[in-house]
Amino acid sequence: MSATTYYFAIVGSADSPLYEADFGVQRTENKHLHQFVVHAALDLVEDALFANTACYLKAVDSYNDWIVSAYVTPSNVRLMLLHEVKSEEAIRSFFVDCHELFVKTLMNPFYDPSTPIQSQAFDTKVHSLAKKYLL
Known about the structure:
Layout: E1 5-11, E2 17-24, H1 31-51, E3 56-63, E4 66-72, E5 78-83, H2 88-106, H3 120-133
Antiparallel strand pairs: 1-2, 1-5, 3-4, 4-5
């Protein structure tokens, strides 16, 4: 794929950020702008859930050259990806594998589901999934 910027976030059911990561080319845009764009798309994710019963909601919002894609788990945890290149199948595969990784993290008896994920192993695996599917 081409050199592009990706911002990935996992947002809990209470709209609290559980995990975030940047992939690809880091440009001069402020990380807070990425967070703002993804957070602004959360309402559109809720609206899209009424029209669609699938977990993968595809592109739910766009801002300038960026597209926000979303994946909602059965427990209403939102996996959000801010990206510039539209590649539906690769993004869907990335979300499915990240969801599986998130479920494995939830099964850890030492992890509190309402707190941010700080596991280095989780971060490493998410980055390897991004390299496999997105970069």
